Amino acid sequence: MSGQSPFKRPESVLVLVCTRAGEVLLMERTRPHGFWQSVTGSLEWGETAAAAARRELYEETGLRAGGRLLDLHAGETFPIVPPWRARYAPSAHVNREHWFVFIIPTRRSIHINPSEHRQYRWLSAVQAATRATSWTNRKILRRWSGLRG
Fold first, then answer.
1. 85 vs 70: CA distance, rounded Å
2. For the chain, what is the domain count?
């Protein structure tokens, strides 16, 4: 699907993976060290947000969403930070993030992509909201779990 532009599309997905009991999956990125997050990734050119969410979920965890992916029809827009500017067209200054939730019955073993993530943890929603590094990840965790703050 890429090939339409040499630049990265300034649109992404965040997929919150959780169990029916309310446990949340967080993964630590390989870089920067200590950066914990849910499943995330950029949309490819011509790809829908739902298709990107399914693709990223599988690439980062080995989980297949099937029809069980919940589109929250919400998200955030945030500035593209200087370390990543060169990946985007000069006219792109913000990224639009789309939020999804994937609920599974119980914890599963996760097959992380070692080029992207170092480790994963199943955490309570409160623990996940405390550990998540990005403010958008903390916001979706609080929204989904009913946490305040």
1. 30
2. 1
- Tokens 């827009």 map to which residue? 77
The pTM of the full predicted model, rounded to 2 decimals, is 0.92
What is the mean pLDDT of each successive set of 10 residues along the chain, which is 149 residues long? Answer: 77 97 96 93 97 97 91 95 89 96 94 94 95 95 72
Nearest to 25 by CA among 148, 127, 135, 139: 127
Strand pairing partners for 18? 24, 103
- Contact in structure between 120 and 138 (CB atoms under 8 Å): no
Look up the domain containing 116 and give its range. Answer: 11-145
- Cβ density class 29-57: b for 16+ within 10 Å, e for less: beeeeeebbbbbbbbbeebebeebbbbbb
